Amino acid sequence: MIRWLRYAAVCAAVLMLAAAAAGCGAGGKQETESASSAEVSSRESTEEASSEEKLPDAESSSEKEASSEEASSEEFRFVDAHGEWFDAVLDPDAPRHAYDWSKLKASGERLSYEDEGYQMHFGIDVSHHQGKIDWEKAAAAGVEFAIIRIAYRGYGESGNLLADKTAAANLDGAAAAGIAAGVYVFSQAINEEEAREEARFVLELLDGRELGLPVVFDPELIRDDTARTDDVTGEQFTANTREFCRVISEAGYRPMIYANMFWEAFLLDMTELADIPVWYADYEPAPQTPYGFEFWQYSESGSVPGIDGPVDLDVWFEKTSG
Questions:
Q1: Each residue's pLDDT tens digit, 97-143
Q2: Predicted local confidence at residue 240, as pLDDT
Q3: 16 is a domain residue
Q4: Residue 210 maps to which CATH number?
Q5: Using CA atoms, how far apart are residues 203 and 197, in angstroms rounded to an integer?
Q6: What is the rounded CA–CA span in Å between residue 244 and residue 143?
Q7: Residue 8 placed within a domain
Q8: What's the CA gap between 136 and 273, in Å, rounded?
Q9: 307 in a structural domain
Q10: Residues lower than pLDDT 70 in the chain
């Protein structure tokens, strides 16, 4: 819980900006719902922060400890997808990544990473918004993996949980083209019970299907609209994530978390979730996160043969040694 106190002051300062800054490089695919469960897509994040008041005569030792901790805390800055800058305090206990970004090269929309410890793979993430995909063309163009939306929960009050109507066709098409696939669920869970419901729904849809890549929990908040997750705390989001991943892991699949820098800095407890791999979203030239991750969503507006319109682009840093 130390982490929540450490960044409470920062969260309070950005609370008024959180809804506008929620994207923070995230490639979230939001789904709204009315009575007819209509869909929209967007990206966001926000958090409610709390403050603690001290008694005037109880300041000596505790105030000194707080001052000492703040002085020794490592701070960093990051920018979100909307150009907003944020100050954050590094979680000293969360695992760091060991990538050397001087080895990262870009050629047009494609990236390369020359390090004998890793093999970089090029991929995409898709949902029904991409329409019918020619997976053979995508494979011929160099797509090696895909993370496919399998389900989503509407962000309206009722929170209907629905299957992505193209998931089965996309999974079959990717497999036939030799493309490794994982799946993700766009989450609007407000508690652990709903997180379990989402995990079980995903398992029901998979029906024992083998996957080459993880099952991803994608919790997001909604920008420019009222949503059922508006009042969910960072602690609750962390608990939801832990519960979803537990259910998925016990079913024999590998779980993974989708997050951007805002979520890692102000919402998720990265120490509590240290054993779960991360699919990180950031559209800067190099990832801004200091924390560990395996997959990087680096563009929300890429182009790939076989897909009409823009598509999210990703890379997978597959560890080959160490």
A1: 999 999 999 999 999 999 999 999 999 999 999 999 999 999 999 99
A2: 98
A3: no
A4: 3.20.20.80
A5: 10
A6: 28
A7: no
A8: 36
A9: yes
A10: 1-72, 322
Rounded Cα distance between 123 and 109, Å, is 12
Is the residue at 48 inside a domain? Answer: no
Q: Give the total number of structural domains in the chain.
A: 1
| Segment 251-292, tens digit of pLDDT | 999 999 999 999 999 999 999 999 999 999 999 999 999 999
**What pLDDT does residue 3 have?**
42
Separation in Å, CA 277 to CA 169, 203, 318:
27, 19, 12
CB 21 within 8 A of CB 144: no
Return the amino acid letter for 285: P
CA–CA distance, 133 with 175 (Å, rounded to integer) = 13
pLDDT at 35: 32
Size (the chain), residues = 322
* Ramachandran angles phi, psi of 316, nearest 5°: -120, 120
Amino acid at 72: S
Residue 111 has which token pair? 């990236």
Selection from 211, 214, 212, 259 nearest residue 237 by Cα: 259
- Confidence (pTM): 0.81
Give exposure, 146-167, as e/b (b: 16+ Cβ within 10 Å): bbbbbbbbbbbeebebebbebb
